């Protein structure tokens, strides 16, 4: 699903955010990217989503070589990806329903289809009763769940999450992780950037550790053998 | 995974069957509803913006109406325009009388007065005082004169000029000219005012573009985070710019309607004093307002300016916003 070959990311001004990254995440896998702040976690996710373009090497996502995705095709490319953020980035002047519906409206689905899918997604994260609320009236955990519903409502093949539990207490974080696992079980490939090492170790999934822009270990094997 | 893949495939087929036109129409409807909703959510701010546009459009439209009315009035005054046609020296009084009768029966001529050579000489003697000098001449040096009142219906410079050429083509007529140059002068003045109104319209049109462009720019920055999220979820530039273009269209349209209302109300307020003035001149002059076609053109120009203004703004500012 995602393959990095000798990927470099060099920001103008002399900062090398990523250096010679090689990794492969299979279709249907769930993996974590961890490391300290500034290690390159977010950059890695941004390269996958074509928010930024890598400076060297090759990235293939969902069979597409990202260098060949022209500016005009980026929008269509992103429709196969779901996003989640630490600051959830919900639109505060729209209801929960409208927030979750956004990816479907963008893709041009009709009213009936949108309603059906938004209800299904909100039901999945347990917030169907809050569909008419505004995001600000929800708790942090609920807002994050709305974010998840929005990220999966258009059934993307790939889900990218950048510190999805950064602002939540351990119990809520665990809840969110379990939700991710459920989506993973129905086939969505998931890549999560997180610095909460204790929690992601408990998930027993593959862990990619970054330090100063380089990959250190693929820790999953160690865990599986325990 | 397999199950999901087949689901996506099936979904893709369904989507390709649904005509692209339907999606296009749906998204336009959504943009229309959304942009109208945005206007209604800030009614005062929207009304103020539309009013500024309306006033900017009303000014040139108002001047245009004043010009139309002026032209109407000069057409009414055309009845007092006279042409002096000097006949050739070899045309005697009988021939002159005959010609006057012939001309008077023409449909574009209301009245013809003949001043014979004798009458002209008498008048000249009285007025000039060159009695002795004239006595010294063997022959009367003055030609016969026809005073012609045209009946043209419309007294624009062009028709007046054409009428004169027609008269000059008559073989007995040596020379024909408007005895009052003021029609020409008035037309020249109207020409200048027309040019000024045109320039004013261009300047105020530019002002409307700037107003709308700036309003749209603020809308864009106000909804910056929304645009970023939409781009992240695969929104095309077209999808994102559509509501802004419609906002510009609405502003322009409501501005045009306000301009029309302002002009119409102003004319209603002027109607009474104009009527009493016309009465004093025993004229049946009536103020003319905007025709349906002109009102439509006014609103259409508002819409076009709105679209162009928002398009420029969108091109400049929307592309700069990328998800971070």
Describe this entry's structure for a reader.
- The complex is a heterodimer of chains A (226) and B (324).
- By secondary structure, chain A is α/β, with parallel strands linked by helices.
- Chain A has a domain at 87-155.
- In chain A, 35% of the residues lie in helices and 27% in strands.
- In chain A, the strands form two sheets. Chain A has a six-stranded mixed β-sheet, sandwiched between helices. A four-stranded antiparallel β-sheet of chain A has the order 2-1-4-5, with helices on one face.
- Mean pLDDT of chain A is 88; it is low at 219-226.
- Chain B folds into two domains: 22-75 and 186-317, no CATH class; 82-179, Alpha-Beta Plaits (2-Layer Sandwich), CATH 3.30.70.
- Helices cover 73% and strands 7% of the residues of chain B.
- Chain B has eleven helices and four strands; from the N terminus they run αααβαβααβαβαααα.
- Chain B has helices spanning 2-17, 20-41, 43-77, 93-104, 117-128, 131-135, 157-169, 182-222, 224-232, 237-280, 292-317, and strands at residues 83-87, 109-115, 145-150, 173-178.
- The interface between A and B is medium-sized, with 28 and 29 residues.
Q: Care to give the gist of this entry?
A:
The complex is a heterodimer of chains A (226) and B (324). Chain A is of the alpha/beta class.
Q: Could you list some keywords that capture this structure?
A:
heterodimer, A: 226 residues, six-stranded mixed sheet, four-stranded antiparallel sheet, 8 helices, 10 strands, B: 324 residues, alpha+beta, Alpha-Beta Plaits, 11 helices, 73% helix, disordered N terminus
- Largest contact between chains: A-B, 28 and 29 residues
Helix vs. strand class of chain A: alpha/beta
The percent range for helix content of chain A is 25-40%
Largest sheet of chain B: 4 strands, antiparallel
Q: Terminal Cα separation of chain A, in Å?
A: 27 Å
Count all strands of chain A and give the number. Answer: 10
**Large-scale geometry of chain A:** globular
The number of distinct β-strands of chain B equals 4
DSSP strand (E) fraction of chain A?
Answer: 25-35%
Low-confidence stretches of chain B: 1-13
Number of helices of chain B: 11
